[in-house]
């Protein structure tokens, strides 16, 4: 990942941790793709996609998580749960953290349960 991507991911992580979520994994790699953040929100496993857009001319960060991307994230999440069977019985959700605006101080929009898989 590039430095800017790391920076936005770190901002998203700090935002989620400030809200009480606990990090389980960061940049979990599978042959189907990568999970940016895997968090624990109480008894829920949250798979979090982080997106940054400086401008919304072509849609914001949340809109950029297409149906195709959602399928890849769902498959990667299944791989994560296979690798961590102690979490497999917990409820799961897919969140998107959309950052936008000025790179040095982006606005953060956390969309819980952004899509169903």
Automatic annotation (TrEMBL):
It comes from the Bacteria. Keywords: Endonuclease, Hydrolase, Nuclease. It holds the Pfam family UPF0102. Signal peptide: none annotated. InterPro entries: Restrct_endonuc-II-like, tRNA_endonuc-like_dom_sf, UPF0102_YraN-like. HAMAP family: UPF0102. This is UPF0102 protein EDC25_1178. It comes from Pseudofulvimonas gallinarii.
């Amino acid at each position: 990942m590039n430095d800017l991507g790391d920076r936005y991911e770190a901002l998203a992580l700090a935002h989620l941790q400030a809200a009480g979520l606990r990090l389980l994994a960061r940049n979990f790699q599978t042959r189907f793709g990568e999970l940016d953040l895997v968090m624990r929100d109480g008894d829920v496993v949250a798979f979090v996609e982080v997106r940054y857009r400086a401008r919304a001319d072509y849609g914001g960060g949340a809109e950029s998580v297409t149906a195709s991307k959602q399928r890849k994230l769902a498959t990667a999440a299944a791989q994560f749960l296979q690798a961590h069977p102690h979490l497999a019985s917990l409820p799961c959700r897919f969140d998107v953290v959309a950052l936008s605006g000025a790179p040095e101080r982006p606005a953060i929009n956390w969309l819980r349960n952004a899509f169903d898989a």
